[in-house]
Amino acid sequence: MGSIFDMRNIYIVNNSSVASQYGVGTYVEQLTKVVRERADLNLTIVQICANVENIEMRTNNGIRLFLIPSVDVQDNSFLYERYCRNISYILQEYIDLFNINVFHLNFYQDVAIVRSLRSRQIRCVVCFTVHYLNWCFVLKGNRTYFHFILSQDATKRSLKEIDVFDAFTVEKEMFNYVDYVICLSKSTKEILINDYQVPIAKLKYIANGLPHKLSVQDNECEKEPVLGKKEILILFVGRLDHNKGIEELLRAFRMVQDKIQNVRLVIVGDGEFATYLKLCERIWHKVSFVGRVEKDKLDCIYSMADLGVIASYTEQCSYVMIEMMMRGIPLVATSVAGVNEMVGPSYPFRVNISQEEICSINVEILAQQMITALSMNLLEKKSIKDYLVNRYIQLYGFDLFRNKMLDFYLNIKSK
Known about the structure:
15 helices, alpha/beta, single chain, 8-stranded mixed sheet, 6-stranded parallel sheet
C-alpha cells in the first residue's frame, strides 16, 4: 500500500428526495461497493435532503457519511442555490488538500455546489453521471421535437417549450462546469456531443452493472400471493407514470388476456395508482398492483415471471432490464435508444415508437409482441434466455462496471 499522499478522496453526492425516481439510489449502492474494496480510496457520501434535523457526520465501516437536513426550498431556485452553496462551505472544511479529491454528482439541481467550488478555486475534480435528460420526460424522448425547440425563435416558444429550453440550459451549464461526464448509454454520449456540444475528451461511457443473483428456489416464494394456480405472469417493475408506458401496457394487456385466458399482469412500483386503476375496469381480477416491495420479495416475483415488459418512452440504462436479463426473463421492449441498445439490434420482441410531435406506442403491436413472446416453444425460450443472459454477462455485469469505475477514479489527474 502506498503512502497517505497516494490516497484519493471520493465524494458521492446523493439527494434523498429524488434518488429513488431515477435509480440513483441503486447507482450509489453499486459505487459504494466499488470504492470500499480499495484501501487507496476514501469514500464520503454526501446525503442532501436527508431525514435529520441537524447536520450529522457518521462513519460506518470506513465510509464517512454527511447527512444534510432537508429544507423546504427545492421549489425556489434562489433559496435552493443558497442551500447548495452552504453545503459546499461545509464540505470545504473537510477537504484534504494533500490528495486528489473527486466530487461525483448525480442531479442537475445541484449545479450550485459545483459553481461554488469553482468560484472559490477549491482543488478538486468534479464528475457528473447522466441518469436522465429532462426534455426526454416532457417530450417522451422525441429528439426531433427537441431539435425544433432548440432552433426555434425564443419569442415563439410555448410554455412547455420554454420549460424544455430552460432545463436544457441548466443541463448544459452542469456539463460545462464539471471535468468529466459519465454516460450510461452510448446514445446519450452521442446526444451530448451533438446537441450539447460537450467535448469528447470530457465524456466517459460506463454502463450500469449489477452483481449476478442466484435463482430463488420455488419453496422460498410459496407464500407470495401474486399468482393463482397455473397462471402466466407478465411483469412490469418501475415508477407508475406516463413515461413508463403504463397506460399503453394496460390497454395492450386487455388484448392479450382475450387471447390467453390464464394470464396475469403484475405491476410493481409506486406512483399514480388512482390513474391506472381506472384503466383496469373489467380486468381488475387479472391485474395486481403490489406497490413497492422489498428486494427479497421482488426476487421472488422475478423468479415467477414468464415475461417482462419495458414500455418506456425514455431510459438511460435500466436496472430493471439488467435484473430481468441476468435471469433470462423474455422481454418485450420499446425501441427507444437506451432500451434498444441494451437488448441489441437483433432482438425480436421490440415495439417501435412513432416520432411524431407526440410520440406514441402502437398498442396493437405491443399486444401482439407479448402474445408472440408468450407463445414460444421450449427451444425458442431457451434461445432467448441464453441471449439475454449472455448480454448481461458481456455488458452489464458488476465486475465490468467495477473495473471501469476504478479505472476512471484511479486515473483522474488533479486539476
